Amino acid sequence: MSTFRYSGSSFYDGDKPVQILSGAIHYFRVVPQYWEDRLLKLKHCGLNTVETYVPWNWHEPKKGQFNFEGMADLVRFIDLAGKLGLYVIVRPSPYICAEWEFGGLPAWLLEDSNMRLRCSYKPFLDHVDDYYDVLLPKLKPLLCTQGGPIIALQIENEFGSYGSDKVYLNYIHDAMVRRGMDVLLFTSDGPEDSMLQGGMVDGVLATVNFGSRAEEAFDKLREYQPDGPLMCMEFWNGWFDHWREEHHTRSAADAALVLDDMLRQGASVNFYMFHGGTNFGFYNGANGHVKDSYEPTVTSYDYDALLSESGEPTAKYHAVRDVIAKYKTVDAAELPAPLPKKDYGTVVMTQQATLATNLERISKPVRSAYTETMEKLGQDFGFIQYDTFIPGPRSQNKLYIQELRDRALVFLDGEYAGTVDRCESDTTIEFEVPDKGQHLSLLVENMGRVNYGPYLKDSKGITEGVRFGLQFLSDWTMYPLPLNDLSGLEFQALERQNAKNGPAFYRGEFFAEEPADTFIRLEGWTKGIVFVNGFNLGHYWDQGPQKTLYVPGPLLKQGQNEIVVFELYRCVAPEIRLQDQPDLG
Predict the structure, then answer these.
(1) What is the Cα–Cα distance from 259 to 257, expressed in whole angstroms?
(2) Active site residue 245
(3) Which candidate in 51, 99, 234, 295 is catalytic?
(4) Fold of 4-325
(5) Which of 13, 48, 424, 509 has the smallest number of Cβ neighbours within 10 A?
(6) How far apart are alpha carbons 397 and 472 in whole angstroms?
(7) 448-485 pLDDT tens trace
(8) What CATH architecture is 370-474?
(9) Does the active-site annotation cover 158?
């Protein structure tokens, strides 16, 4: 057992001074079979600590239903890090940001229309208590005070960027203490007056997050915390990507220069990220800092980090290791051998199942006079289709989808009429309704809940209503499509010349003599989701910047493997390419 603490300007493990050199690896963005590989590479880089967030929605996807297995086996990840000789910093806040869906908050919170987030609203605090009653007892045996590797826990996350409710912050602090979290507790915020004023907790170590101008950031921290060690809890050595943007990069030399500046001042540092990993499934978040702004994050969380998305050391890795070697002895052990990567060639889709003919096979319809959000229907992710009938005749008018979240494909009598996007306010769909009337279908895609900023409360689907002209339309049949079970699909044989446009599932197989990492290139496809052996890899979109989807080798089987592509629009040819290198755009 040990006590990890700070005194004066230094951290101590017992009586031994420690400079924390940490890197962020999110267990929930990496398949468990690769955890050890990533941790060994972290240690080899000269780091002594691994840091991870804990996303609430990953562990309690439905109220009262908890998951701590597979990619959610937090205890195994922490225990493995400890066995490899690493300290562990855990950030189990109710909210984590992390460019993760809803900032880690579970979607079911939004079933309550009155819910208030990240504040001392009792129903929210009650849910946090229920979660902590399950989560924190799992962490207690892993605390350094119990002989484990966890040296510190975070209270909330960058709260000063969101609010100023000190009653709430102290409640979270006390909730941890009451449950036996007797290790170092800390906060982390941007190095600005308002952020530190809003995010600090009396008697708790404050740390700061930044990507440059280290001396300036630490000077600001010292104005509010004259004593205590200096620590950058998030050194942003790279950045994340949104759809329809350029891929973000930062030079290795620039990141190394800022690190050198911090280490020269004797500061501790946590690289955000050391290894980014992947936003598998529907777990990517989105930014929405101002009203009517919405920027969904891509599937890859490569982050231009020290390790690539597939875990390979980058130029930044070697540059950082060289800087650390100036100040301490780095691990002399050899790097783990590169994981195998394969080019499996072209996979032709041989079967197709259109959404229109399979809707009731994979969804249970719900009738209502008005449109409901996903959350009100108990749905967290995916798509939802809204169907109604407009009596005729009616003269030409505009279709309005009020407060759409996030993107709707519009169909009139089954024919595609256009797409409405919450970010493209100038899109107009107008039509006449014939004497016989017209069926209206709206296939709405949830592209990820906002994970940062004042517009965090981001319900999905149609959140207000649908109008034709000034009149709200009624009598809706809604089809939730979380796409977590595709076993009901009925596929038909597909010949290239007979492929149908519109929302459809395409199925193909390929043989893997030896399972290895690979990358799916979807040249000629438009927008959708890819499943490999039933595992949801995440979104693709021809808007870029991401051009390939990463497939970790452990998702493949020796022998035949199934790929299902859910394409919303069309593909030039029903085939994909499995290559041995990524293309980030």
Answers:
(1) 5
(2) no
(3) 234
(4) TIM Barrel (3.20.20)
(5) 424
(6) 13
(7) 999 999 999 999 999 999 999 999 999 999 999 999 99
(8) Sandwich (2.60)
(9) yes
